[in-house]
Write a structure and sequence with these properties.
alpha+beta, 2 domains, Rossmann fold, OB fold (Dihydrolipoamide Acetyltransferase, E2P), 20 strands
């Protein structure tokens, strides 16, 4: 990824797209860096695919501007933009073999490149996506992961400045999806091309992206690195969408430099770090990640910790961790993620068994209620 001082490869400037009375994307303002892996993340209908299609040239903005490499491209047709797109279902031609699929875009150029030049470019693209020798295979003879690589090869053979990926791994099984995530990251780093991914899978976005744009109802609600969004979400919506989190509703009772206190059900107080702008008397929620909570058979009175009695409702073994669903009389049900090593020393917990949930004061985030 290029330094922030370099001019952006693409920009949205107050960009809005309306479909009749429906605002699919509203007032998007975003600078996309050269060579970065950026993801648009959000639920169905949030506007992420509309943003991608405006970059690709398949949709024109209703107002505002889209820029690529400093040039306003609102009215520039898709085939004249320095971008290529990999679709969710790959859009490969079933009647053509791998070579003809990959070379299709090159063969549409005028003047058409020489046959030897096209053949060399196809071989290089196949090497890049680790499919050497597959040129004469038929599309229907290939697995889903191989078809995805063919779609990627077809996209990169034209050497675009930006590669757009519209949920390209949605049809793959979990293991293959993980393998392809690693391959996409390696490919992006080796090519140095800006990758822009649209996905509703938060694990996919967290594992692959340099930055993530969280979208909701057509708007960008937060932009940041995966770590920033996970550790410092600006709202309950973002905290809920990025990773797993437990939420405890209450009223802010104190805001100080040493910590913010949230009064919750049962007279309990949760001490955490407040989002900017919170004041005493406001309703808010404490966000606690399951891995920030531990389980113990006995209570503790250690300074700087909160310890509450719970009952184990469910237990799911996840290999390196065990996920427990526990129930507190006032806080309700919440999740606890216990590492295998911690469980080995403390012992496991069975459904119906009493336990104590413990977390350090200050680990919770006190977030305003979503508008």
């Amino acid at each position: 990824m290029q330094p922030d001082t370099d001019p952006p490869i693409a920009e949205f400037r107050a960009t809005t797209k309306m479909f009749g009375e429906v605002g699919a994307a509203r007032d998007l303002n975003l600078s996309i860096r050269k060579g970065e892996f950026l993801s648009f993340l959000g639920p169905s209908g949030c506007g992420k695919t509309t943003a991608l299609r405006m970059l690709a040239g398949f949709e024109a903005p209703t107002s505002g501007d889209v820029l690529i490499d400093g040039e306003r491209v609102n009215d520039l047709p898709a085939h004249r933009r320095p971008v290529n797109m990999v679709f969710q279902h790959y859009a490969l031609f079933p009647h053509l073999d791998v070579t003809d699929n990959i070379s299709y875009g090159l063969r549409q150029r005028r003047p058409r490149p020489a046959a030897a030049e096209v053949a060399q470019a196809v071989e290089q693209a196949l090497e890049t996506v680790r499919l050497p020798g597959y040129g004469r295979r038929r599309i229907w003879e290939m697995s889903g992961g191989q078809q995805q690589r063919v779609a990627l090869a077809r996209a990169i053979i034209n050497q675009p400045k930006i590669l757009l990926l519209d949920e390209p791994m949605a049809a793959l099984d979990r293991k293959l999806r993980r393998d392809m995530q690693i391959e996409l990251q390696s490919l992006q780093r080796s090519l140095g091309i800006t990758f822009i991914l649209v996905t509703h899978d938060q694990e996919e976005a967290l594992s692959m992206s340099d930055r993530i744009c969280i979208m909701r109802a057509g708007r960008i609600v937060q932009i940041g690195s995966p770590r920033e969004l996970y550790d410092r979400p600006n709202s309950r919506y973002v905290a809920d969408f990025v990773g797993k989190s437990n939420f405890f509703a209450g009223t802010v009772s104190r805001v100080e430099a040493t910590g913010t206190a949230l009064a919750v059900a049962g007279g309990l107080r949760i001490i955490g770090t407040a989002a900017p702008g919170l004041a005493p008397g406001q309703t808010a929620s404490a966000s606690l990640r399951p891995e920030q909570i531990s389980l113990a058979h006995g209570t503790t009175t250690a300074d700087g910790t909160t310890c509450v009695p719970v009952r184990v409702v469910n237990r799911i073994f996840l290999g390196e961790h065990t996920e427990y669903l526990v129930q507190h009389d006032d806080l309700g049900a919440f999740l606890v993620l216990v590492p295998r090593q911690a469980e080995a020393s403390e012992g496991s917990f069975e459904p119906g068994e009493p336990a104590f949930a413990i977390w350090r004061d200050g680990t919770a985030l006190i977030l305003p209620e979503d508008a």
